[in-house]
Amino acid sequence: MSETEAALDDPTTIAPETLAERLRAGDELTVLDVRDRDEFDRWHIEGESVEAVQIPHMKFIQAQATGGVTDLIDDLEEPIVAVCGRGEASDHAVDLLRDAGIDAQNLAGGMDSWADLYVARELEVDLGLDHESDSAATVVQYDRPSSGCLTYAIYSGDEAAVIDPLRAFADRYAEDVAYRNAELKYAVDTHVHADHVSGVRALESRTDATAVVPEGARDRGLAFDAMTFEDGDELHVGDATLTAVATPGHTSESLSYRLGDVLFSGDTLFLEGVGRPDLERGDEGAPAAARQFYETLEDTLSELPAETTIAPGHYSDAADPRDSDGTYAAVLGDLRDRLEAFAMAEDEFVEHVTNDRPPRPANHERIVAANLGRVDVDAETAFELELGPNNCAVTG
């Protein structure tokens, strides 16, 4: 029996999928993390309606001996979801809390199962394609709640492409494509990612897919064979056409891909802001990248129809999924109206995106080197490198 199945049968546990849905719905709850402080500081579960609290498991062991379990959580609001690395220490804490009459559940499988959670949903959009055969194209959005990473699979006829795949889930994409009786033709990266290990080479080795990266990745030291794309180049997937659109700023080589009235924007444009400009060239190069980014917003994105659906590469805790299908996407016209970045003058924009930044993604330099093929990392190391928030966005 899987951890999820066990959680469904046990009221003391909560499945990762159920927790994700509660977070998406904005349910108020306390996440009690019983790992050590350094583990908590590195990465923990967050959400707009979540109070994340760290109390190490050792304190529950001590409290069990003294009978003071309730004293540990006097100030915490119920319900409580307890977490640890694998769900064992937190299970013990939940037993103590429930014996004391506290509404508490244990996250089945712990943070390991949270990192493994990957949800696929069809993106319900009118692609606005010209040809009747194109209108049959299907877009699937893959959501990793633990990091907010989004990946896309495009199906047309008996062919498929995957945009911004994660290495950790390469087998999942291949299995899903096979389930739909399709052939994976392309594994596409919109840019050289700094927050997660890319799956384009893993998919190329597992399937007959061709790895596709921006031409500008060569200037950054690309060290593996791949098909490279520039602005205006086209990928044909069945009867559908993906067109590359140069959108530099987050990185110099960033491309977005347009499919009819949908733009897969990578880390250029999010639902809550824009990509940060400092991950490629550091603080010194950030202002120049920001000015390039401003041109992308003012020139390239301003030329797109307001009804264009933006399908981003990430979302944050502040993003609201669309009510109709639960996916993360938004209409460009709405983003222009509500994001401050679109209303700023150039100097104001540069100051905003170079000064208002979260910490850089953990291990970003090693991840970039791995994604360029300059260093090799095994699957376990790759998984560890990318744990935690992506931190690729500047809000607003």
TrEMBL record:
SUPFAM superfamilies linked to this entry: Metallo-hydrolase/oxidoreductase (SSF56281), Rhodanese/Cell cycle control phosphatase (SSF52821)
InterPro entries reported in the protein's UniProt record: Metallo-B-lactamas, Mito_Persulfide_Diox, POD-like_MBL-fold, Rhodanese-like_dom, Rhodanese-like_dom_sf, RibonucZ/Hydroxyglut_hydro
SMART domains with a match to the protein in the record: Lactamase_B, RHOD
Annotated TM spans: none
Pfam families, per the entry: Lactamase_B (PF00753), Rhodanese (PF00581)
Domain Rhodanese, chain residue ranges per copy: 25-123
One of the GO biological process terms: hydrogen sulfide metabolic process
Keyword tags: Metal-binding
GO MF entry, a single one: metal ion binding
PANTHER family on file: PERSULFIDE DIOXYGENASE ETHE1, PERSULFIDE DIOXYGENASE ETHE1, MITOCHONDRIAL
UniProt-recorded name of the protein: Rhodanese-like protein
Species name: Halopiger xanaduensis (strain DSM 18323 / JCM 14033 / SH-6)
